[in-house]
């Protein structure tokens, strides 16, 4: 037991996700992983490396290059009583399976009068910052958060990467997990959870009293750095990690705004029609009289993501942008 605890104490986001999958495969024979290159290659981002050798080709299944086909197969397996984990390489490729996700996975329970649950987990990489150009770099999780019938998760920490998968697999509804590509190499100490993770709850990553910085996923590290810079200037920023994008934790958002009376929403997606727009609207609807300043938003530029590094950096929300937005709200 002591050896296992020590092995998990220092890890990376990638390794934490791999261990979560390994634990799921060991604990439930109905669980299997399927997707492009998840087997012999070990996954496009190395998450499933070594799992084929441990669990065999029946449970670590390489699929043809057809997202619609293998997501559809995952839906069928879930309907038949299995607990599939489907990996889509990047969020952009998930658009090829949007019909399966929107018209089948998200609707079958409702359209069958509760008779056909679809306990399916779909994992995919999202986000930019790795010079993968416009085909592989966008943050489209807000699109999926628009769809009733699914749960949308964005683990931003090693702990969430390790411990969100089990409750996701236990959910009778389809769950989409968005893993930001910039987080895979993040390393740190992995502490055992004091209680099971509640997938409905946001997390306060840094308490504060002067302004609420509300974000999720790959933007969290930048926002935490921004909070440190603001603290050096005497501004006590609270950092809220949404974690769940559908459903949103309205209570956590409203409670934070009631405490700080100012808010900046940071979202790597495009500003127009974004998740940041939804969060901002909810703050105005439910916490308007708590606000001492307009809600600020920090989002990506409204362009296809550039390939050139400096252009990509200019298009993405950066720490300096968060600090500037906080100053506009506080000053």
Question: How do the strands and helices of this protein lay out in sequence?
Answer:
Elements: H1 2-9, E1 10-12, H2 13-27, E2 31-35, H3 51-55, E3 60-62, H4 67-79, E4 83-90, H5 91-94, H6 98-105, H7 108-111, E5 121-126, H8 141-145, E6 151-153, H9 158-163, H10 165-170, E7 175-180, E8 187-189, E9 203-206, E10 211-215, H11 220-232, E11 237-241, E12 244-246, H12 250-260, E13 263-270, H13 275-287, E14 296-300, H14 309-315, H15 319-330
Helix pairs in contact: 4-6, 11-15, 12-13
Overview of the structural elements:
- The chain has 331 residues and is of the alpha/beta class.
- The chain contains 15 helices and 14 strands.
- The longest helix is centred in the first third of the chain and has 15 residues.
- The protein has a seven-stranded mixed beta sheet, with helices on both faces. A five-stranded mixed beta sheet has the order 9-11-10-13-14, with helices on both faces.
- The radius of gyration is 20 Å and the shape is globular.
Number of strands: 14
Helical/strand content category: alpha/beta
Q: Helical content, roughly?
A: 25-40%
How far the N terminus sits from the C terminus, by CA atoms, comes to 53 Å
Number of helices: 15
Strand content: 15-25%
Mean pLDDT: 95
* Regions with little confidence, pLDDT below 50 for 5+ residues: 1-7
Largest beta sheet: strand ordering: 3-2-4-5-7-6-12
Q: What general outline do the C-alpha atoms trace?
A: globular
Largest sheet: 7 strands, mixed
Order of helices and strands: HEHEHEHEHHHEHEHHEEEEHEEHEHEHH
Radius of gyration, in angstroms, nearest whole number: 20 Å
